[in-house]
Amino acid sequence: MLREGLRGQRGWQPAWADRNLQSEYEVVIIGGGGHGLATAYYLARTHGIRRVAVLEKGWIGGGNTGRNTTIIRSNYFHPQSAALYDLSLDLYAGLTRELNYNIMFSPRGMIEIAHSESDLETMARAANSMRINGIPIELLSREEACRLVPLLDPSPHTRWPVRGALLQRRAGVARHDAVAWGYARAADSLGVHIIQNCEVTGFTMAAGRLTGLETSRGSVRAERFGMAVAGNSSAVAALAGFELPLQSYTLQAMVSEPLKPCLGQVVSSSYNGTYVSQSDKGELVIGGNLDRCPSYAQRGSFHVTRSVIAPLLEMFPAFATLKLMRQWGGTVDASPDNSPIIGPTPIDGLYINCGWGTGGFKAIPAGGTLLAHLLATGSHHAVSAPFDLARFSRGDLIDEGHAGVAH
After folding, report:
1. pTM as predicted
2. Terminal CA-to-CA distance of the chain, rounded, Å?
3. Quick one: which of 349, 354, 355 has its CA closest to 378?
4. Which residue among 64, 109, 175, 222 is buried most deeply as judged by most CB within 10 Å?
5. What is the mean pLDDT of residues 136-149?
């Protein structure tokens, strides 16, 4: 490493090639974030479809994949969601070996804090549902929660006292950039073309079917198209001529100055909207609720920062002297039932993966697997079928927003 640093890294090869856009592919995927790259990888590896292009208007992983708080969990209430996110958690557990790239997956466990007797009752019902869904989950007493996270304020007289907790031991975090880079390198090695700085500017139709795209780097044709563009989903759909039931919001996060290891788990409170973990560099990674002002701006706001930090310090008084180093925002697309949309669109030949809201990072391996299945076979995987766009017209909603924050 020292030699390459002094030589200007002339001996290191790029992890993936930055290709020129060809005129035709079998499949074109719009969006070079985690979901788009994972889709391309699984198309090539699982389905043997290697004439694939991934079009990214900026740079690989420059959107939400690199602008989140990296939480991975599957403790969801509804069986459809539990199946989806547990598939993703299973894939994450083996992803470093699968991609031969260290994604720094750390299954350190996630604790959801209850602050009142009514919170405990709601938590117990949720735990029962999760167990029925096949998700191992534990209910902790106040004493057990405080032993596991000793920096929590044990006083019963704070605004957010600890009354108990819900623990998923398999949950954890991973390195967000490494997930994007690992999928990009693996997809490239299988022949996928990754094309950066390539913005889609138009859609070409023939006989009612999507046949091509106009981009900032030229025209391209394909047999099938996938779309995984996160917070820009409704804008790209409008460009294609159809409407999605999505609203884009800013999800803000921030990190503190680094400190010695002091927090071994992800700690969350759906009731006040705050969650925190400690990175491998020692920083506290802190997040909270969505800023419910529709926006495409990738920046935070002071009132959200204040609403996150205030309850955090009441739960963890020892953090009061820390300095915030930086904060940022990501643009997320939220659906009416706080669950993703995976499936065909009103445009023949175009399939979507969108509407993840605050849950997109944890779902990357599953989202890629399911969209790849759709693109390869033209039909749903059993796990993705409940999340079809048609559920809104049928009224088959999968509302995961019942407990507040759905990170």
Report:
1. 0.95
2. 37
3. 349
4. 64
5. 97
Structural domains in the chain, sorted by start: 106-171+248-332 (3.30.9.10)
Q: Which residues pair with 396 in a beta bridge?
A: none
The residues pairing with 194 across neighbouring beta strands, listed in sequence order, are 18, 54
Place of tokens 């959801």: 112
Alpha helix (H) ranges present in 156-219? Answer: 176-189
The mean pLDDT value of the chain amounts to 94
Helices 364-377 & 79-93, crossing angle to 10 degrees? 100
Mean pLDDT of 96-111: 97
Would you state the pLDDT for residue 404? 42
**Helix (H) or strand (E) run with residue 218 in it:** strand 218-227
Question: Which of these, 321, 322, 311, lies nearest to 161 by C-alpha position?
Answer: 311
The pLDDT-based confidence of 160 (bands split at 50, 70, 90) is very high
- Rg (Cα) of the chain, in Å, rounded? 21
Q: Helices marked H in 241-361 — which ranges?
A: 302-315
Please tell me whether residue 321 adopts helix, strand or coil conformation: helix
Question: In this predicted structure, what is the pLDDT of residue 392?
Answer: 96
Give which of 404, 406, 396, 295 is closest to 356, Cα–Cα.
406
